[in-house]
Amino acid sequence: MSAAFGERARTLVFAAAGTALFWVLHLPLPFLFGPMAACLLAALMGQRLRGMGQVSKAARTILGVAIGATVTPALVGQLPVMAASVSLVPLYILIIGAVGVPYFYKVCRFDFTTAYYAAMPGGLQDMVIFGSEAGADVRALSLIHATRVLCIVTLAPILLTTLFGAHLGNPIGAPAMDMPPGELAVMVVAALVGWKGAERLKVFGATIIGPMVAAAVLSLAGFLHARPPAEAIVTAQFFIGMGIGVYYVGITFREIRRLVVSGVAYVLVLAVLATIFSEIVTQLGLAPALEGFLAFAPGGQAEMAVLSIVAGADLGFVIVHHLTRVVLVIMGAPVAARLLGVRPPSPPN
Question: Which pTM was predicted?
């Protein structure tokens, strides 16, 4: 038995145990928080864990299809109404960068390249890839962005229930047995074709963006009429939670003191900024408070999609804002980095 197989089997055991414990104790979102908490604890205790590779990627395509299925003619008709709140996203990103880069550079004493990519509110994997190509500290970026996602995913449900009165037990989808086989087949096609097509085109976030676009096209064309079944959404939650915990494998106390603590402090700054912008959107009457909060919460696309579904929020509204943020960061971060003098390291002589 290979080491990789053993580590993956161990990871699944921890994740399943965490899920079962959260389920028995009636804790919220057991299929997301259970594996996340168990794998995080195991990683902090020094256990060698490993992500599920292509299986985890396939699970993320489920959320891509779920998002794409919400793109209906009615949603397209609402896009002009969303324009005002979406127009705030570039300003939101600029302020985050203006606060975050000096924080990581001056306060946390990172090199400028690492500080820049640590501050950018893009996808975890995207920022790590960009930072790696520019010569940043990849381990620092991984832990800081993983901490951002971990904190947002942990705090957001608490805020949703206490501040917004949201009920996190909303139906996440119909049971698979109640859905027409043809509909399920269309979802599988959208997931696979979208995922692999986006990968061939080298699209960042291909596992979500590709299926999302494919499902949106099929939805607008009248071939797709519902989100993936509840069992599929639960599976996606399980692998997402597991993946967050696995990012902390091999962490040292020095990294906790320097990187994780820095990341937690930065999340508090982001939380203040997100609250300000969500309040602006709400007070201007551009969105209800729940959607305004979820639209500007600086989490990942997949995690915010899950929270929007379980909270019963307008998934289309929330994801339009997150896609805008992620696309702007992905397209703008390398350009802004060059303008600020962030360059890849010179090759050794």
Answer: 0.80
